[in-house]
Design a protein that fits this description.
The chain is mostly helical and 152 residues long. The protein is built from five helices and two strands; from the N terminus they run H-H-H-H-H-E-E. A two-stranded antiparallel ribbon has the order 1-2. Strand 1 and strand 2 form a beta hairpin. Helix 1 packs antiparallel against helix 2 (36-59), helix 2 (36-59) crosses helix 4 (81-93) and helix 4 runs antiparallel to helix 5 (97-131). The longest helix is centred in the last third of the chain and has 35 residues, at 97-131. It starts with a helix and ends with a strand.
């Protein structure tokens, strides 16, 4: 990897992340509890990736710098979902259905499992600390000065 590529991805990611923040902030204001902003960001990222692969598929000469900046940088910052869907697109295009099923299953189901696992571990840990007789493991967040204080 060269420094120029890293810089292109870095700046593109900052732009994409900023766009995602703005979309999410302004589209989720007065809507139902469905995260419409995230969906909009994901779909825009997928659309841009679709445009890029169609363009490069037609021209057969990928412009590496532009592709890195837009696809990995901007779309990666806008959404990691677009990269996931791009991988699936290439697996379908190449008729690699065995890898497609595995890839989708690993990312979707194991990703969901890890979210649940993190949630449960956090809940278990906080339950343990709140109900423990071990006074030295109990901490309390003091909002006044943003420090952790020991209490018994």
């Amino acid at each position: 990897m060269d420094l120029k590529s890293l810089i292109l991805v870095f700046f593109g990611g900052g732009i994409g992340s900023s766009i995602r923040y703005l979309i999410t902030k302004y589209s989720n204001k007065n809507l139902i509890s469905f995260p419409i902003g995230t969906s909009i960001s994901n779909l825009i990222g997928c659309f841009i990736i679709g445009l890029l692969i169609a363009y490069y598929g037609k021209n057969d000469i990928p412009k590496k710098d532009i592709f890195l900046f837009v696809s990995i940088g901007i779309c990666g910052g806008l959404t990691t979902f677009s990269t996931f869907i791009l991988d699936i697109f290439y697996m379908v295009k190449n008729e690699n259905f065995q890898n497609l099923i595995t890839y989708f299953s690993v990312n979707f189901f194991i990703g969901f499992f890890f979210i649940c696992l993190g949630f449960l571990i956090f809940k278990w840990f906080t339950f343990f600390l709140n109900n423990s007789q071990l006074w030295y493991l109990k901490f309390r967040y003091v909002q006044k000065n943003n420090t952790l204080k020991l209490y018994t």
